[in-house]
Write a structure and sequence with these properties.
mainly alpha, 4 helices
Length: about 110
């Protein structure tokens, strides 16, 4: 396995990604849903790239980028919740997972 599979941040992003994809799996024809899917994949990808980088400064820069993507993602999630696409429980689970991940990233 690649080094990023063992990375705790990547693992957390991976679980959150699976949860978000499951929550949006049956939703079609909604631009915000499409943006959520795009953003969760970007967070996962950038986290994997950071985990594979041996240069700490570059790794931290990539993780800061992931933090910016998470901020946008959480805004998109709140829009779906506001439109009542997500129940309170689904929103809280997804938003909470990405908030927890963001708190572990460098600022």
């Amino acid at each position: 396995m690649s080094a990023f599979h063992d990375d705790k941040l990547w693992q957390e992003a991976y679980v959150a990604t699976l949860d978000a994809l499951e929550a949006t799996g049956t939703l079609t024809g909604n631009d915000v849903v499409d943006q959520v899917r795009k953003h969760v994949m970007m967070v996962l990808t950038v986290t994997a790239q950071a985990a594979n980088d041996r240069d700490r400064k570059i790794r931290d820069a990539k993780l800061r980028d992931a933090g910016h993507i998470i901020a946008a993602l959480r805004s998109l999630l709140s829009v779906l919740w506001g439109q009542e696409v997500f129940s309170d429980d689904v929103f809280e689970k997804l938003d909470g997972a990405y908030e927890a991940l963001a708190m572990k990233l460098p600022r």
